[in-house]
Amino acid sequence: ELKVEQNPLFLSMQEGKNYTIYCNYSTTSDRLYWYRQDPGKSLESLFVLLSNGAVKQEGRLMASLDTKARLSTLHITAAVHDLSATYFCAVVQSRDMRFGAGTRLTVKP
Amino acid sequence: GAVVSQHPSWVICKSGTSVKIECRSLDFQATTMFWYRQFPKQSLMLMATSNEGSKATYEQGVEKDKFLINHASLTLSTLTVTSAHPEDSSFYICSAREWYKRNTEAFFGQGTRLTVV
């Protein structure tokens, strides 16, 4: 059974600091997604990672994938308040898509 | 990019009534759609996989008679919450992918916030 573990669940950061969110999964996967969710809203797609060693960057966010370790990271660089949201990783295996528990990020001035 | 439209965005209903939520893929054919449920401050939990032209596949613990799913066309899936109760109050989100395209994103609807009073 495909299981996805994400940590930390809660993250409070100062503006300007760096931090990393981790996503581990239990079996081989076809691809991995990172999503952002604002309160009361649906999911906004951030990245899709398809292969081992894949790295994608958009602004202050950078995602990477290590399929051998079954690990993906979402790195936040020089955080700003606008990044406050809940971030989810989701792993796809065949037609099964499972979500991590989510990381609630709060960026404080 | 592809768009998935879900409505209503929110609905309030009385206990015992039924509520239908629609999920449409606007510019692609979605042979499979997914229905998720999200409680406050929790992750998305897959409820069922909706297959066009056939019965939905429900996750363990999800009552198929309570959450009726119909996927009558390649662009429309519906979730009907029957005889709703306050504990059914939640945020419901649908998702669709173009399954014949291997490397494609999953697109999500806007979500429906259901409140049963």
> Percent range for helical residues of chain B?
under 10%
Instruction: Look at the helices and sheets of chain A and give the structural class.
Output: mainly beta
Q: Give the number of helices of chain A.
A: 0
Low-confidence stretches of chain A: none
Mean pLDDT of chain B: 90
Helix share bin of chain A: under 10%
Largest interface: A-B, 22 and 24 residues
- Helix count of chain B equals 0
**Proportion of residues in β-strands of chain B:** over 45%
Low-confidence stretches of chain B: none
What is the succession of H and E elements of chain B?
A: EEEEEEEEEEE
Principal-axis shape of chain A: globular
What's the gyration radius of chain B in Å?
14 Å
Features:
heterodimer; A: 109 residues; mainly beta; 6-stranded mixed β-sheet; B: 117 residues; 7-stranded mixed β-sheet; 4-stranded antiparallel β-sheet; globular
Descriptive report:
The complex is a heterodimer of chains A (109) and B (117). In chain A, strand 7 (61-66) and strand 8 (71-76) form a beta hairpin. Chain A has strands at residues 4-7, 10-14, 19-25, 31-37, 43-49, 55-58, 61-66, 71-76, 85-93, 96-99, 103-108. Chain A is built from no helices and eleven strands. In chain A, strands 2, 4, 5, 9, 10 and 11 form a six-stranded mixed beta sheet that branches. In chain A, strands 1-3-8-7-6 form a five-stranded antiparallel beta sheet, with no helix packed on it. The model of chain A has no long low-confidence stretch (mean pLDDT 93). With 109 residues, chain A is mainly β. Chain B has 117 residues and is an all-beta fold. In chain B, 0% of the residues lie in helices and 51% in strands. Chain B has strands at residues 4-7, 10-13, 19-25, 32-38, 44-51, 57-58, 67-73, 76-81, 90-97, 107-108, 112-116. In chain B, strands 2, 4, 5, 6, 9, 10 and 11 form a seven-stranded mixed beta sheet that branches. The radius of gyration of chain B is 14 Å and the shape is globular. The mean pLDDT of chain B is 90. At the A-B interface, strand 4, strand 5, strand 9 and strand 10 of A face strand 4, strand 5 and strand 10 of B.
